[in-house]
């Protein structure tokens, strides 16, 4: 065991007081994370109550499905952003990378590649972009903000270049199965000959979100890699002295971020059954906001996937409820921006204390 909050020697050489101090700091971080998570959950419940009172259609099954599908894109990116932010980094490129991945998948399918392989190609492109981000941060020693800002511009430019700035259409109904299909959907043919949906089923994007959230949560909380991710964010030098391969861990988080962006691009383009090179603008801010609202600290070392998923639902329900109440898109941006500012301010106060 090593004190990861300051660059000290292994725990065998620490005094009992130093070990006690370290344990107190760890418990304090867990307590802060728990408080922030419950605060985000309370905000989510409050939004549900308010929008249920202001709109009769808010609690309908169709609106619930709409919210679930809207939240998935934020959650995919937010889950990966959580890992990056825990290490003390940031990824501003995910919106552009998802657009590039989506159009690559669409172009591959239109060229005759089987849909699963075309989707895989898009995800691999996303992972490669994440790898380049990681190399720039770990090997070239560029600040994460600058490295991922550069990739944001490059990926968007490549997406526009290879499509001629035009949407890729004519992909066929099968291309939309991933984004629009559902598990356990029950459909009955009515007496008029038209299909009647008895149960809409669980959308595939929602299933992917649950699997991804559980997988990454287990990785962070139950594996050595997860402990190393937290260690790098808590104190990079202490982690290095403890034997953690800081560059490899950091690179992994950026590859994960790029891969999740690629997956998001494929699912999103599948939902639209059209690949848009301009898709994903500002999605990186939603990803970062969902992580911060859920308790992930921008200074690194603190965060959880469950909190990020709650944060994603806060953003998704806030947007959905404002739409149902006729609030303009411009006003929505102002409100969500204020929510982000308030959340980051609370995070800063928490860290100062």
Number of contiguous helices: 13
Please, what is the oligomeric state?
Answer: single chain
Alpha carbon gap, first and last residue = 26 Å
Strand content: under 5%
What is the string of helix and strand elements? HHHHHHEEEEHHHHHHH
Shape, please? globular
Helical amount among residues, as a percent range? over 70%
How many β-strands, per DSSP? 4
Question: Could you describe the 3D structure shown?
Answer:
- There is one protein chain.
- With 353 residues, the protein is mainly alpha-helical.
- Helices cover 70% and strands 4% of the residues.
- The protein is built from 13 helices and four strands.
- The strands form two sheets. Strands 1-4 form a two-stranded antiparallel sheet. A two-stranded antiparallel sheet has the order 2-3.
- A hairpin with a 5-residue loop joins strand 2 (186-189) and strand 3.
- Helix 4 packs antiparallel against helix 5 and helix 7 packs across helix 8 (224-234).
- Mean pLDDT is 87; it is low at 1-14.
List keywords for this structure.
single chain; about 350 residues; mainly alpha; two-stranded antiparallel sheet; two-stranded antiparallel ribbon; about 70% helix; about 5% strand; globular; disordered N terminus
Short description:
This protein is mainly alpha-helical. 70% of the residues lie in helices and 4% in strands.
SSE topology:
Layout: H1 16-54, H2 61-86, H3 94-110, H4 115-138, H5 144-163, H6 177-180, E1 182-183, E2 186-189, E3 195-199, E4 202-203, H7 204-222, H8 224-234, H9 236-241, H10 246-272, H11 283-293, H12 305-324, H13 329-352
Antiparallel strand pairs: 1-4, 2-3
Helix pairs in contact: 1-12, 2-7, 2-10, 2-11, 2-12, 3-4, 3-5, 3-10, 4-5, 4-10, 7-8, 8-10, 11-12
């Amino acid at each position: 065991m090593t004190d990861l909050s300051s660059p000290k020697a292994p725990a065998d050489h620490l005094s009992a007081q130093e070990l006690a101090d370290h344990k107190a700091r760890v418990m304090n971080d867990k307590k802060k994370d728990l408080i922030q998570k419950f605060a985000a959950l309370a905000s989510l419940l409050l939004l549900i109550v308010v929008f249920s009172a202001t709109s009769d259609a808010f609690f309908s099954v169709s609106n619930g499905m709409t919210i679930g599908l809207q939240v998935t894109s934020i959650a995919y990116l937010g889950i990966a952003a959580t890992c990056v932010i825990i290490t003390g980094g940031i990824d501003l490129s995910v919106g552009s990378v998802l657009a590039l991945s989506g159009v690559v998948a669409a172009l591959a399918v239109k060229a005759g590649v089987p849909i699963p392989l075309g989707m895989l190609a898009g995800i691999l492109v996303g992972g490669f972009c994440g790898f380049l981000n990681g190399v720039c941060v770990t090997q070239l020693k560029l600040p994460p903000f600058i490295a991922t800002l550069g990739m944001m511009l490059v990926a968007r430019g490549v997406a526009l270049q290879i499509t001629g700035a035009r949407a890729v259409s004519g992909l066929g109904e099968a291309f939309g199965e991933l984004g629009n299909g559902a598990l356990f959907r029950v459909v009955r043919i009515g007496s008029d000959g038209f299909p009647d949906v008895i149960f809409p089923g669980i959308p595939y994007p929602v299933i992917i979100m649950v699997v991804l959230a559980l997988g990454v949560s287990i990785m962070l909380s139950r594996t050595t890699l997860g402990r190393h991710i937290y260690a790098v964010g808590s104190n990079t030098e202490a982690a290095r002295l403890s034997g953690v391969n800081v560059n490899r861990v950091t690179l992994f988080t950026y590859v994960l971020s790029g891969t999740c962006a690629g997956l998001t691009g494929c699912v999103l383009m599948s939902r639209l059954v059209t690949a848009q090179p301009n898709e994903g603008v500002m999605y990186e801010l939603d990803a970062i906001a969902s992580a911060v609202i859920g308790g992930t600290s921008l200074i690194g070392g603190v965060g959880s996937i469950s909190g990020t998923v709650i944060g994603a639902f806060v953003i998704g329900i806030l947007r959905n409820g404002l739409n149902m109440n006729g609030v303009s898109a411009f006003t929505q941006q102002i409100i969500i921006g204020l929510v982000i500012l308030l959340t980051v301010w609370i995070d800063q106060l928490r860290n100062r204390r």
